[in-house]
Amino acid sequence: MGKDKINNPSSGEISEESKTMVRNLAQRIYDLDSEVYKAVGSSLGRTFNGDKKAAIDQLYRLILTNPQGYRLRSEIALVGNMARTIRDKSVKAQLMTEYNEILKETKKIPLSFGNVDIIDETLANLNSSNFGHTMSKEDHLIICISRTEGSAGTDIGFALADALHINYYDAEVFRDVLRKIDDEKDVEWKGVNKAIKHKRARAFSRYHGLSMRDAAFFNESEILCNMSKEQDFIVVGRCADAVLINNHIPHISVFITAPFEQRAKRIMELEGVSYKKASRILQILDKKRERFYNFYTGKVWGNASNYDLCINSASYGIKEAVDLILRVINRDSKGN
Known about the structure:
single chain, alpha/beta, Rossmann fold, five-stranded parallel sheet, 14 helices, 57% helix
């Protein structure tokens, strides 16, 4: 790449106006480095040594040929780090103000660091941590929690619901809801389809030939979508994050896990079993959740890119993990 080119996906070159901006910025960075050097009074305060013109040319080329800003960021950071060691508070404040202004100017350069965001607007609009900006009167606070066995994900979800004073749903709760719905439907189908007397035959007819497992998943998905119109809630498992994404329903998704050894230790304490037994429990249940999630979503269970937030619960514990999620969604324990 030539020294006056930049990796611009639209044109491949930087404008003359931007070149002038870059040249002026390179001058300011060099001057700031010199002022910091004088204030610190040590050679350690100098980032750009040698001839002034050569140093500015070097900075100019660095900005133009390193548009993602990794090296430039490091060089500027060195200047800022040293400026923070200045003992004279007034001088320090003056130089740090210039440092911050330089950072702002750097972000104005096409494709410089901080200028190209990672955001996917479609996903961002479904993320309830953005509710302060995108939430409508019809949107509710919905947090989906996926977890590995033994990571305390269920406990964290329940504690979070309690802290926010909102409803909590997991596999057991959904099972009870679906059982009641099935009982109601069974009474209805017995009356309408008197000729179908066998329970399994009635179920086959009622579920349009779907397996009980598939029917349960689709019924749970329908319940999830309906609840999202009526209430705030925490939901653990059930592929809820994928279901809500597919139905364009705002929510925040969290994946909770912990090191295998720590999870095994927790299962040993909870279940009163040996390490070998605890390890087997983890392997079986994790694999079961993985197969279920992968099959119904087409995604990879536990893949960090599927979630808004991933937490190592061993680093926080239940209470701190709850507090972390509350901070992410900008809520306190009273739900405000």
